[in-house]
Amino acid sequence: MSDFFGDIKPVIYEGPESSNPLAYRYYDPKRVVMGKTMEEHLRFAVCYWHTFCWDGVDPFGQSTMPRPWDKPADAMAGARLKAEVAFDMFSLLGVPYFSFHDRDIAPEGATLAESNRNVQEITDLFAEKMQETGVGLLWGTANLFSNKRFMAGASTNPDPDVFAYSAAQVKNAMDVTHKLNGQNYVLWGGREGYETLLNTDTKRELDHMGRFLNLVVEYKHKIGFEGAILIEPKPQEPTKHQYDFDVSTVYGFLKKYGLENEVKVNIEVGHAVLAGHSFEHEIAMANTLGIFGSIDGNRNDYQSGWDTDQFPNNVPEMAVAMYYILQGGGFTTGGMNFDSKLRRQSTDPADLLYGHVGGMDTCARALLAAAKMHEEGSLQSQVNQRYAGWDSEVAQAMLSEDASLESIAARVEREGIDPQPQSGRQEYYENLVNRFV
User: Fold this and answer.
1) Contact between 121 and 107 (Cβ < 8 Å)
2) Tens-place pLDDT, residues 258-286
3) Which residues contact 117 (CB under 8 A, 6 or more apart)?
4) Alpha carbon 76 to chain centroid distance?
């Protein structure tokens, strides 16, 4: 073990009455809820990038939290130290998973071959640490947005050499994810979009992006990767307009390129907000369209119009999201990945633990509330009652292939149908939810 976290002891469940800031008050990993343990329901993962790579820099100020692995004389030695600290933290928190981009874990080399070797060397170390700790990989991905070569996109870049370079980098990232038995592989298209239509051929770019994703799926089957391929929707930032705007847009893209049965979505709270949606809306749409995969658990500052990646701390909001996750059957290969970072004034190593402990407790409380809502059933029964008219034989007949616009219109005239508005009772439903949170 490293000495980065000093003498901090592993975080354990102490119950709601505990005042220990490094203890779980609600997250009891072995507690059974709706037939599964909390650990199985929530499938927590620590993200490598914000947790171990972000140093507190912002557009107006320098780093506020330099780490001992930053800018060493030997960059690979720094990467190995970072890995040691990462697995120390995973063990202290007792999380079952972690996640990473290739450029988070190893320095970029002078050539792609050197970069790939660096990534492979660190993943060999990961394999040893995973064997020692029992921590698994929720997902891996390639960073196709930080280097200046990607300033005009990766698969959507007007330069075919960037498309080729991106494919080669993704192949290596998929290989190491497969080697580490990752549960998923994520494609995060941070710059797959445009800054201005004036210099953009959107049809070419979408066609190229569709072919790129088909290549990824083909390679998944070729190597026998059994995890899910995920796209993470995001409407903007850093690109003005991104092609993976939200869940519904991604589904339309998948349908166009024949991928709706091969690819699912990884939904982030902050990205949902930037798209003008709620988190639960995106989850419900993914369930409806059959592409729900995994989530990034964080929150935005609602006073800021950008993605602030703060740790979740709003139990009522997360409870409604968890309700729809449970309604869809819960996670399979996916989980709750903390794509969250410290505030730049939170500079102590212990702050990393405080953020995750609070976020995990928030999600645990949300799970308990959502499970009660699900088991008690009054919310779903009220929704069923609202649509009960559609269960009748005559209503179902309107949806059959035998029905026509003329036959429906004739029945309305024949029976003198004159429907009157029925209350949606929104306030009632909102009060019903508040009974559980």
Assistant:
1) no
2) 999 999 999 999 999 999 999 999 999 99
3) 109
4) 29
